[in-house]
């Protein structure tokens, strides 16, 4: 096995560092804003730590970019953790926005908590099978197969799979370019 600092984690770390420095943010400031430890962020930037989905979203929001800007195209297309499977299906980059399309599977009772995305980001979740709950901005929506919800994703939000079967959904995140 090769040096992890030359693989996908290293490329993600390089993107995080480049975006942070381009915005004039210190390591300390980004870590505090993202709610992660300074040492953890340093290890991410140097490629010594593999980021989780939660960490990527935590860092992307304060940097004002969609997660796709951190992971690039073709890398990390699937991430499985804690009963949640997230597969990136497509990324469309346009002059005014970036659209990310994900297939999400939540195991029964699994909870996916997402920090705020970049300012102005909007999510549309279409439940394909099963049922669950989406919570955002003090609101809570119960969803079943065929249901759709759209909400501002520039605030913390969460998805919870129903205890009797979880759910599978398509999640579309549209983030305006700064």
From TrEMBL:
Gene3D superfamilies: Jelly Rolls, lambda repressor-like DNA-binding domains
SMART domains: HTH_XRE
Pfam families reported for this sequence: Cupin_2, HTH_3
Every HTH cro/C1-type domain range: 16-70
Keywords: DNA-binding
The protein's name in its UniProt record: Helix-turn-helix transcriptional regulator
Organism for this UniProt entry: Myceligenerans salitolerans
């Amino acid at each position: 096995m090769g040096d992890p600092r030359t693989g996908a984690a290293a490329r993600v770390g390089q993107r995080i560092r480049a975006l942070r420095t381009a915005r004039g943010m210190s390591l300390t400031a980004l870590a505090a804003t993202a709610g992660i430890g300074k040492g953890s962020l340093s290890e991410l930037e140097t490629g010594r730590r593999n980021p989780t989905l939660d960490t990527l979203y935590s860092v992307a929001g304060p940097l004002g970019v969609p997660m796709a800007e951190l992971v690039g195209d073709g890398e990390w297309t699937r991430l499985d953790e804690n009963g949640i499977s997230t597969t990136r299906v497509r990324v469309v980059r346009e002059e005014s926005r970036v659209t990310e399309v994900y297939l999400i599977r939540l195991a029964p009772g699994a909870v996916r908590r997402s920090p705020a995305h970049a300012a102005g980001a909007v999510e549309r979740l279409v439940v394909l099978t099963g049922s669950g709950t989406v919570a955002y901005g003090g609101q809570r929506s119960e969803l079943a197969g065929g249901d759709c919800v759209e909400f501002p994703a520039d605030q913390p939000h969460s998805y919870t799979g129903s205890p009797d079967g979880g759910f599978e959904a398509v999640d579309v995140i549209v983030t305006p370019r700064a």
